[in-house]
Amino acid sequence: LNTLIIHIVKNKPMSPNDDILSNMLMRYSRDINQLCDTNRNVNRTSLVSLTNLFSNKTQDLTEKAYMFEHHMLKNFLVVLDSPSDSVREAAVNFLRNLLELYCAASILPSVDVQTLLIERLFARVSKLPYNENIEEIRLEITRLSIIIAEMFDAGVRKCMRLVQETLASLLKDKYAEVKKTACGLVEKLCDKYPLEFSLNVRDVLFS
Asked: Model pTM?
């Protein structure tokens, strides 16, 4: 995650190739459906398969992004809250690959999708005691939050109160590496959203 390079991302409409998208859905519909399976091994296997698809950033980027937003998002949100530690870890790993793909394609998800991802991911760590009880996963979420703050301007502004609450919570984490990484989030928010971030921030951080 530390080696991820954030490119300038422009919000342009997706125009997927219908044939490529159709073939992709035919091949991966089973994996998408199995994200909602009650068996964690099935969830994990499907996430690995989809992560392998999305980790290839040399072709069909628009089609993959479109498939995620229009055919996969609802099921993905389920595994992001899975009771299985290994499934949640795999889901966070997939999300990292998704963000990298958006960067490589120079596109952004819709504001609604940005908001859903922020709300569901940040809810794992926004309050004490944490919904996410695994330190290493909280660290990965904290790292992803910096990338999200860089990429999802509209979503972050829309969810600023939640972002502030999440930051306050992360700065109280007993795991030192999470606190250290959260300081990077402070820097990013101050740099990109100085006006929005300054509103009520003292009340949130020192409550």
From this structure: 0.90
